[in-house]
Predict the structure.
Amino acid sequence: MRKLAIIAVAMAIPIFAHADEPVPLSYKAANGSRQSVIVATSLDTSGNPVVSGYKGSDGNWHDTLVIAQTCGLDASGIPLACAPAATAADLSNYVQKSSVGDAVVTAGYGSASATLATRFSRFLDVISDGGALCDGTTDDSAAITALLASAAGKATVRLPVGVTCRAKSIVLPAYTHLTVDGTLKAIDAADAQLITINTRDHVTIDGSGTIDGNKTSYASTDTGVYACINANGGQYFNLEDVTVQNCKNYPLNAWNGAAHVYVNHVRMLTSGNSPECAQNVDDCWVNNSYIAGIQDVGWSFYKGVTNSGITNSRATNNSGAGISSYLDNGSTTQSGNQNIIIANNVVDHNGGPGILDQGAGSAQTSANRNIQIIGNISSYNDQAGQTGYGCVYLANDYYVNVSDNECSYDGNSTAAVYGIWLQTQNYHVTVHHNKIWNEGIGGTLGVGIQNSNLSYYSQITDNEIFADNGNTSMVFGISGTMPSTGWSVVKNNLIRGLTGGPYANLVVSTTTIFEDDFLNQRVSATGAAITASNYDAWMYLYQTGTVASQTITLPARAGNGQVFVISSAGPITALTVAAPSGLSVIGVPTSMSAGSSVSFRYDAASLTWVRVQ
């Protein structure tokens, strides 16, 4: 009589049972006796089980799981063993039960010498179980696709360490778990997606290996747009730990309404287009990942992406921006991105700005909204030497918070470089507590923060902007024009060491609230005329002896309501306080006593400095 054994076979059906079902403690063999079976996780060198247990859907380990290999149930519902000469046709109708909802254990018949690891593994190997050759040459597409189809929802398909499987157009069904520990490489001249997930839910790709698109160049004559991983719709897609590289276009293209896309600890390298979540994707998160050598933006949220973000990642040496939230400028049909977080990333040595946030137009429906750019470190960007690009670039945005970022050493030509650039049609932007230094490398036109005349309701507060170590590339601290429509705030910014001064090129309007306690000038009154810098708040004349005659010219630019104070340590016998060209002054003093002060407040409506003390 042929001895029955329980082993894992490709045609066997995995176990899925509910927790309230009874656990069979034995199976009834052909000789009428009941036999118990232990399911073990693996074998030691002696062929004995290492752990006689299983992990249930409750997340806990249980002592043993006993399975019945059956071809039916008796009248009492007890599993019946298959006949000794059971065939594949018999086994196609067998019944198995388990107390674990996610247990994947298969039963079959065959040699008793088969190892328990093979019989009860939750992993199916593309070579030993799927028949793929994985010799680095053969097209294994059909074998891998067939194994994925049979294992979906039942077992993890593993591509083992040390092998290279060649393939194209691999389609992942719903409930697929593919572990790539070796290399999955596109066949030569494969103008096709390498892996496709078409509106399928609950798909995971992980492993320590590489997904390789097998493209070493990206000629403009290439036709078609192809991704290494194309996630077209579907929900709950996880990409973890693998390297994705050499893709003709996108390392990952999650798009067309996909939702719950999670990318963690993934390397995305040397490809033609940005890895991205695009076109109405919701809940897309990238974390702890590395993106380099992309001939486009490093990572992109593109067109209508919502409730998503990239954190704790690095984008370096990409041709465009390091990270972007992007729409095509001028489009009237694209929906803006909304609720995007770009936080705690390192972006460096990219061709464009470190971080770019650009909507399609000024209307809220086509602008990006509710964008948080926080705690990033950006340096040595704008390697392409484009005018203006530096650390952060904003255009056509509503409700953006740019805070606690560090920006430095951007630029690679004589073109102007703006650390943070509010370029056009921005509404309700907060630029707060950023540290910006030594911008404009390669030239002498570095600017800390540039505000255009079309950025409304902006707040530029508590930023530190400076040049150090003899750097001469930075010329202005905060530059540009604050708009006359809608209020804006410039307050408490610490700016020092710049060749052109803190605010020498800034124009504020009557609706700008301007207050900066750090704009102080300490000079000695010697009789030579002294001119206050734009937006200065205080001038201290520190000489102690008597000055016979002194002329002081008030600031040529100031915020509406700004106060300018003159204090003198020593007496001034004849004092002249003059207004700059185009402005006037009311209530000028003619002398100052030792230790006294005089104050003026600026009225922008009449272009007049008015004495208040």
Summary: The first helix runs from residue 88 to 91. Residues 71 and 91 are 6 Å apart (CA to CA). The chain is about 5% helix and 40% strand.
